[in-house]
Amino acid sequence: MFAYIKFCLYLCGIISKYAIMITRDILQPIQQDFGKGKIIVILGPRQTGKTTLLDQLASQYEDVYRLNCDDYDDALVLTHRSSTELRQLLGSHQLVLIDEAQRVEDIGLTLKMMTDLKTAVQVVVTGSSSLDLANKINEPATGRLFEYKMYPLSTHELAAHTDSRSERRLLQTRMIYGYYPEVVTRSDDAKRLLSSIVNSYLYRDLLGFNGIKRPELLQKLVRALALQVGSEVSYNELSRLLDADRGTIESYIRLLEQCFVIFRLPSLSRNERNEIKKGRKIYFYDNGVRNALLNNFAPLELRNDTGALWENLMISERIKRNALAGRYVQLYFWRTVSQQEIDLIEEEDGRLDAFEFKWNPAKKAKLPSAFRTVYPEAGFECITPENYMDWLKCD
To answer: Which 8-state DSSP code applies to residue 151?
Structure first.
């Protein structure tokens, strides 16, 4: 009887483990690109599930060759190899998986040579940042790659895993703790996991990059940006605040973007006299990371930044949804010198759509008259907790 109980508990553990396996939206598009003669590159921050995705791809093939280039010996396998050596390495494998490929010197040339061999082997490559990998591969391997970005989990993926009603109930939790896979599946340990992501992984790629001369400045900068989510960011003000020259501030912000920590929205301007022409806002790809940087996990009723959290969440989720839908969309914000503003503008094939984000559905939003005058054909919608699921195509 005791043995039977142990077996049942063991079986429940297995079921529980696989019950939280959340299907990623990019899995199917990647599989559809197999066999087209291109190397598939998956870029994204650490801890977003790239290795788990490779596990899922590998499970469908019998003959898989896999390298993890965080391991120095595995990285050496791909370093400075001739085309003959690469042909032998690929062999007759069905699938070759190269994890953390940015660790390999001259990886772009290596991938180009692999593609030029024109074998039937499908190669999939991941990188934890675009700092090294994208910069090193794009020029030598131009036209030989299909590139994907892997973000933290999305509202769409979680609603598909359970249902939209369950996900709606967790909205406030998502606003505070974000969407990193382990944070979502181990919510009871969310604070510690996010602190680990920020301290052990977020800075790992950045501080290992030789362009970082002042690590302490980077940490102060990212905290300053976390405090300015939803507000227009001035490089000159950051320079004065952090006692650093503007060029260094700009350089570090570019690095934060390339490591998928933040993204910028430029201001929309079509040379109208009243429009701000060179403004920018900066958002975080994940609310949890932003809050961990500030060490603030207080519930919404005790916060004074709820509106900024809502805006950050919606814009980052829209980026994920646009990427899945294959929409080639330019994103902007809009503001005039008289302080009329719109949170988000999407431009697709010449069409403009404007969006305002209101956490309180009772607060009405309308399109500024100055914008309607200049862009009379633009669409407009106010996004609230009542309709965000529709906007993200989750219902």
So the answer is: P
- Give every CB contact of residue 81 below 8 A, 6+ residues apart in sequence: 89, 110, 113
For 42, phi and psi rounded to 5 degrees?
A: -115, 115
Report the C-alpha gap between 131 and 148 in whole angstroms.
15
Residue 318: name the closest of 293, 343, 351 by CA. 343
> Computed from CA positions of residues 168, 170, 175, 179, in that sequence, does the dihedral angle turn out positive or negative?
negative
pTM of the model: 0.89
Nearest to 385 by CA among 323, 322, 313, 324: 313
Tokens of 372: 């309607």
* Cβ–Cβ under 8 Å, residues 53 and 47: no
What single letter denotes the amino acid at residue 35? G
| Residue 348 near residue 329 (C-beta atoms within 8 A) | yes
DSSP state of 359: S
346 and 383 in contact (C-beta within 8 Å)?
no
pLDDT for position 6: 35
Classify residue 37 as exposed, middle or buried by CB count within 10 Å of its CB (0-12, 13-18, 19+): exposed
Nearest to 170 by CA among 151, 194, 150, 153: 153
Dihedral (C-alpha) 360, 195, 203, 44: value to the nearest 10 degrees? -60
Percentage of the chain with pLDDT > 70? 88
Is the pLDDT at 130 greater than 80? The verdict is no
pLDDT at 240: 94
Domains of the chain: residue spans and CATH: 27-149 (3.40.50.300), 155-391 (1.10.10.10)
Distance CA 132, CA 210 (A): 11
As a dihedral over the C-alpha atoms of residue 242, residue 244, residue 245, residue 248, rounded to 10 degrees, the angle is -100
Hey, which bits of 351-391 come out as E strands? 351-357, 379-383
DSSP states of 40-102: EEEE--TTSSHHHHHHHHHTT-SSEEEEETTSHHHHHHTTT--HHHHHHHHTT-SEEEEESGG
Nearest to 125 by CA among 57, 223, 32, 197: 57
Residue among 295, 315, 24, 250 at smallest CA distance from 148? 24
Query: Which residue did the predictor score with more confidence, 10 or 196?
Result: 196
Residue tagged 């990059």 (tokens) = 209
